[in-house]
Amino acid sequence: MAESSGKPVAVVTGGAQGIGAGIAAALGEAGYAVVVADVLQELAGETACQLAGRSVEVAGVRLDVTSADEWARVMREVDARWGGLDVLVNNAGISPRGTIESTDEALWDQTMAINLKGAWLGIKAALPLLRKRKGTIINIGSTRATRPMPGLFPYVISKAGLYGLTRQVANECLAEGITCNMVAPGWVDTPNERKIQARHGRPDFPAGIRNLTTPEDVGAAVVFLASRHGRKVHGDILYVDSGLHVADDAGM
Ligand code: NAD
């Protein structure tokens, strides 16, 4: 990573594409230096190049969120360049389909490792840097953390766990002034989500929900939570799902 300009800095996991790329762009536009961290290193580099073309101070790095060693390396690099961390966004995630019976142990373990354990490892590795700046942690959950749906067995449980993690971290970090919240999108229009819907069928959207949420919508929510005003929100869940979580027919 190159020299820093003294801007506040944000790390976005799974930042190479989809919602993560939208979050990285929104933070960059809001004046943050952004680390686009993704297991797909080449794509992370391409996304970082696009942001650099929009005058964002940015680095694209490889990070497998399930690896404590990789988290340690990324945090060493961030500390060396910026001397701390202002915003950690745990966005990397997978959305497998499965039921109680069709889910095998390998799929359960993989889903929990990426969607839940990855966020814990990130928070653990980032805390020393976040302490230097009274930073904030934002976990990207899902409407499904609180509204289960048939066929999303391991996913729903991983996101419910992420909500529990968010509240426990908020509790442990309260005295230190480090905030922790969860942003919960509903269906977000990303290329990978379209591929999943092409394979498994498009869900019936509840009455009244006409527009899919966009990565830009989620990015704007993250920028708010990272802001001075957003720092008054702590241990909470911010749904960005056009009301899916209160719809009568949201898939329960
Ligand atoms: P996506 O598949 O488009 O992007 C996810 C990114 O995470 C990819 O770049 C992938 O390489 C990366 N990733 C996967 N495993 C990783 C690992 N072990 N380490 C580091 N990076 C890894 O997904 P998306 O739709 O943009 O979703 C992003 C987040 O938003 C996920 O946590 C997902 O559960 C959540 N979400 C998505 C939707 C939706 O409709 N798209 C709805 C609600 C919540």
From TrEMBL:
Its EC number is 1.1.1.100. SUPFAM superfamilies: NAD(P)-binding Rossmann-fold domains. InterPro entries: NAD(P)-bd_dom_sf, Sc_DH/Rdtase_CS, SDR_fam. Keywords: Oxidoreductase. One of its GO terms (biological process) is fatty acid biosynthetic process. One of its GO terms (molecular function) is 3-oxoacyl-[acyl-carrier-protein] reductase (NADPH) activity. It comes from the Bacteria. It is an enzyme of class 1 (oxidoreductase). The keyword GTP-binding does not apply. Pfam families: adh_short_C2. Belongs to the short-chain dehydrogenases/reductases (SDR) family. This is 3-oxoacyl-[acyl-carrier-protein] reductase FabG. The lineage of its organism: Bacteria, Pseudomonadati, Planctomycetota, Planctomycetia, Isosphaerales. The gene is fabG_15.
